[in-house]
Amino acid sequence: MTINCAIIDDEPLAAGLLKSYVKRTPYLNLLGTYGSALEAMKELREHPAQLLFLDIQMPELSGIEFAKILPAETRVIFTTAFKQYAIEGYKVNALDYLMKPISYEDFLASANKALDWFTVSQKQQTYAEDRFMFVKSDYKLIRVPLDDILYIEGLKDYVRIYMEDGQKIMSLMNMKRLEDYLPRPEFLRTHRSYIVHMTKTKAIDRFRFVFGDQYIPISDSYKDDVQRYFELHTLV
């Protein structure tokens, strides 16, 4: 995967250092380097970047202010010399926050975090559009249509996928990895051990999902997401 990125920093030395780091990182493609958010605005409108290395303290328009008007699909890694901006940075959903002076080791760790995010996002989009995935089971690759999944149960290092036709598919897989790849909010984690296909939900009893004679619990850690889903889909 190649990630198209841009650098926005009013300090020429800092911008030059970041530029050298981008060139050393094989999966990053630099679209441009800009001395201000206003300068970048026009160019990025015509040639959008997936990822911005964005300084926070800049004249006219700060990095925080600029991040608030970016398209939702544009991800940001903030760069700054001031620790007090960290909380503000995470409020605008930044992928990471790099403190100046920035070492290549720290830069690469942030870039890898971005690579992981875009890889997961791409797979989520593919699964949502194609409506199936392949999982390994008994030395075979089995095609699993998303529309036929009822729920998924985590069993230590394995998952068991329960299908509408009664089939149960066992696969060596991590629940968190599966949760990341399945499209949300169609599939929601409801418990440490369960992911539920929300469109297949027919009944809730005492804040538990009912699938035939099977009850799927909703734990405190995940109840807010579940409640939000039902608030959006409940006629009152």
Structure description:
The structure is a single chain. The chain is of the alpha/beta class. Helix content is 33%, strand content 32%. It starts with a strand and ends with a helix. The model has no long low-confidence stretch (mean pLDDT 89).
Order of helices and strands: EHEHEHEHEHEEEEEHEEEEH
Q: Given the C-alpha coordinates, what overall shape results?
A: elongated
Contiguous helical run count: 7
- Write down the Rg: 22 Å
Identify the strand order in the major beta sheet. Answer: 2-1-3-4-5
Mean pLDDT: 89
Structural class: alpha/beta
Ends distance: 46 Å
**Strands, total number:** 14
Low-confidence stretches: none
The level of helicity is: 25-40%
Largest sheet report: 5 strands, parallel
Q: Which band does the percent of strand residues land in?
A: 25-35%
Kindly list the characteristics that best describe this protein:
236 residues, alpha/beta, five-stranded parallel beta sheet, five-stranded antiparallel beta sheet, 7 helices, 14 strands, 33% helix, 32% strand
Give the gist of this structure:
This protein has 236 residues and is of the alpha/beta class. It is built from seven helices and 14 strands.
Outline the secondary-structure elements.
Elements: E1 3-8, H1 12-24, E2 28-34, H2 37-46, E3 51-55, H3 63-68, E4 75-80, H4 86-91, E5 96-99, H5 104-130, E6 132-137, E7 140-145, E8 149-155, E9 158-163, E10 168-172, H6 175-181, E11 187-191, E12 194-197, E13 208-211, E14 214-217, H7 223-232
Parallel strand pairs: 1-2, 1-3, 3-4, 4-5
Antiparallel strand pairs: 6-7, 8-9, 8-12, 9-10, 11-12, 13-14
